[in-house]
Structures are given as C-alpha cells and as structure tokens.
Amino acid sequence: MVVGKPFLTEEEIQAKVRELAGRISRDYEGREPLMVGLLKGAFMFFSDLVRHIRVPLTIDFITASSYAKADTTGEVKIHCDMREEIEDRDVILVEDIVDTGITLNYLRERMLTRTPRSLKICALLDKKERRIVDVPVDYRGFEIPNEYVVGYGLDYDNKYRNLPYIAIFKRSD
Ligand code: 5GP
To answer: In the chain, N or C terminus with fewer CB closer than 10 Å?
Structure first.
C-alpha cells in the first residue's frame, strides 16, 4: 500500500477551514453553538475549525464507526457518546468525510430525537457519488472523487492520521 502525493495540500485545506469557520461565525452571530466532533477522523479538522470560529462555543465528541453493508442502511456503533445535553441548543456536527452517508444520517436522526433548537452538519470532504442515504451537508469543504484518502485525521488501519495534507491511498501491487 502506498500514499500518493498530496491530493489536497496543507495550504488548500487550511484556506478551506478558514472559509468554513468564517461562514459559521457569520451564521451563528449572537448564538453559542455546540460543536460536536466525530472521532477519530475529524479530530484535526475539528480543532483547526473551532480555533478560527469567532463566536463563543462549546465542544463535545462522539466516537462512532459504521459497518456498511452493500444494499442496506448498514450499522453504526457508538463507542463513546457525547456528554452535553442538546435540547434547545444550536448543534453543529463536524465530520471528516461523508461517504455513503450512513454514519451521519444515523447520528443526525438520533440527535433530532433529543430536540436541539437547530442541527447542522459540517464535513470537510464529500464523496457524493458514493451516497446511499441522502443526508444534508450544510457546510461542505471539498467534493472529492471515489478514492480512498488518508491524512489530516483520516486513517488507513489507524495510521497516517498525522499527515498535514490529504493523499490518495493506493495498493502498490
Ligand atoms: P459513511 O457512513 O458516510 O459511509 O462513512 C463515513 C466514515 O467512513 C468516515 O467518517 C470515515 O471514517 C470512513 N471513510 C469513508 N471514506 C473514507 C476514505 O476515503 N478514507 C478514510 N480514511 N476513511 C473513509
């Protein structure tokens, strides 16, 4: 397995993060959003994003993984749930990448049962052509082709998360 040259450079990612943070800061003027990061993949994006947001906010995390099955809605397992109450709060769920949409859709539906005042989704990457479940992405960084990517929080076998850029991961054979 090999990691290719940067597909999205550190500079491109940081410029996009600042752009998304600017939009969120404007949209949430006068409010105090609860930002919920989806671990582990969103850890780097999340920390860069919140440091550029100019409204007061609180943070929390969910650790979850999905086991997609070809033609079903798959299964999502929550390993560690959030601790903040979300009732009547303006929640922004922050994800590294939306692929089939199964994970986000599951978490979104689950959160909506707890009646937040609002719930928006922010994802750095979107592999739209892979979508199985239609889930609204309110703040989208980059739309990318159907390739497996690593870096900037995203892993292969829990490795490569520390790369400051995003690269396409290929089999070497
Ligand atoms: P979904 O439920 O949308 O199919 O999957 C979302 C999750 O799948 C992401 O949070 C991420 O953990 C994983 N994933 C999907 N595509 C990729 C990819 O290209 N690279 C990596 N490293 N993870 C991916």
So the answer is: C
Any domain includes 164? no
Catalytic residue among 48, 90, 96, 99: 99
Q: In what order do the strands lie in the sheet with 149-150?
A: 2-8, 166-170, 149-150
Q: How many domains does the chain have?
A: 1
Backbone angles phi, psi at 38, to 5 degrees: -95, 115
pLDDT bin (cut points 50, 70, 90) of residue 67 is low
CA 99 to ligand 1 centroid distance, Å: 6
Provide the β-strand partners of residue 101: none
Structure tokens at 57: 């906010």
Amino acid identity, residue 71? Answer: D
Please give the model's pTM, rounded to 2 decimal places.
Answer: 0.94
